[in-house]
Amino acid sequence: MTRAALAPVLELALRDGYAVPGFVCLGWEDARAFVTAAEAEGAPVILQAGPGCRAHTPLPVIGAMFRHLADAATVPVVLHLDHGRSEEEARVAVGEGFTSVMFDGSALPLGENIRQTAAIVRLAHAAGVSCEGEVGFVGYDGGAASALTQPGDAARFAAETGVDAMAVAVGNVHLQTAQTGGLDENALAAIAAATGGRVPLVIHGGSGVPMTQRQRLSRDTAICKFNIGTEVRQTFGAALRQKLQANPECFDRIELLSATEPAVEHQARAILRALGASGQALGTDQPPVR
Ligand SMILES: [Zn+2]
Fold first, then answer.
1. pLDDT of 191-200, one tens digit each?
2. For residue 227, how far is its CA from the centre of ligand 1 (angstroms)?
3. Please, is 182 exposed, middle or buried when counting C-beta atoms within 10 Å of its C-beta (0-12, 13-18, 19+)?
4. Which of 30, 83, 102, 277 fits as disulfide partner to 43, beta carbons 3.0 to 4.6 Å?
5. What mean pLDDT is reported for the chain?
6. Which of 214, 210, 38, 34 is nearest to 201 (CA)?
7. What is the CA(257)–ligand 1 centre distance, in A?
8. Closest alpha carbon to 235 in 37, 13, 15, 86
9. Which residues are catalytically annotated?
10. Pick from 247, 248, 204: which is nearest to 227 by CA?
């Protein structure tokens, strides 16, 4: 049993200068590959169920799958609800054993975002669960434009909500298929200064951030969590396509989907290493197990 809450995992990451990937999970094969990768690297890991995943698979099914993987793992595994939109959704996730819930009130006016996020922080903390909020707005590739996080807003949001992790918009964009963007490091430094460097920061849209910048910012800044989805989904798709093309007679679902796991695992290990998470689950200082 190695289920861990997000707060203690990120607290160690902030203190020791590394970040933990929040891997976007869409099913059994990728979730299993992420945990296998984390075990091979001796790293903590965050399994995330986002809106796309939840629209496809009911939350209780995902929760049971995540719990099974976490409970059998030898490294800390955080079970995270990504982009929750309501208090009810957070309550259901907590009931299903998630150890961390994100409430995304980024489309709301600041005061309302703070009010609703604070309520979910209270709900989560009462159950020993962590809460991530978002201030500013992280946009979508080919969709809604970002609104950069203002340092003053970030300071107020952190102080008034009591969130354990704060997602910020500093040039990051969801769903980017190439690492052509990159983060505005001055904007990031201004947010860290305004919040005293004490609040773990989260970068959604991590796939669009060049690997060298991820590496450096994980070590040197308050960024403690990079959400990674698109690049591992690309790897999954490429591996499946290769399997299908090489084996046109194969029709078995288990054989087809299992063939994606080595490629996803290989890539997840490289990401864990780049963020400095490798080996961090092997030290004596570990987050409490739930
Ligand atoms: Zn996101």
1. 999 999 899 9
2. 7
3. middle
4. 277
5. 96
6. 214
7. 25
8. 37
9. 82
10. 204
Answer yes or no: is pLDDT of 205 > 70.
Answer: yes
pLDDT digits (tens, 9 = 90+) for 141-190: 989 998 899 999 999 999 999 999 999 999 999 999 988 778 999 999 99
Contact 177, 236 (CB under 8 A): no
How high is the pLDDT of residue 232? 97
Q: What is the pLDDT of residues 217-267, one digit of tens each?
A: 999 999 999 999 999 999 999 999 999 999 999 999 999 999 999 999 999
Output the pLDDT for position 1.
59
The rounded Å distance from CA 244 to ligand 1 centre is 31
**Superfamily of 6-274 according to CATH:** Aldolase class I (3.20.20.70)
Q: Cα 262–63–61 angle (5° rounding)?
A: 85
Q: What is the reported pTM?
A: 0.97
Rounded-to-integer distance, Cα 166 and Cα 149, Å: 11
Residues at Cβ < 5 Å from ligand 1 ion: 204
Task: Enumerate the β-bridge partners of residue 79.
Answer: 47
pLDDT in tens, 53-86: 999 999 999 999 999 999 999 999 999 999 999 9
Centre of ligand 1 to C-alpha 218, Å, is: 18
Q: Which residue carries 């939840």 as its tokens?
A: 54
Q: How far is it, in rounded angstroms, from Cα 211 to Cα 89?
A: 33
**29, pLDDT greater than 70:** yes
Cα of 200 vs centre of ligand 1, distance in Å, is 16
Backbone phi, then psi, for 141, in 5-degree steps?
-55, 120
Residue 260 vs residues 61, 78, 253, 257, 273: alpha-carbon distances, Å: 21, 23, 11, 6, 21
**Domains of the chain: which residue ranges?**
6-274
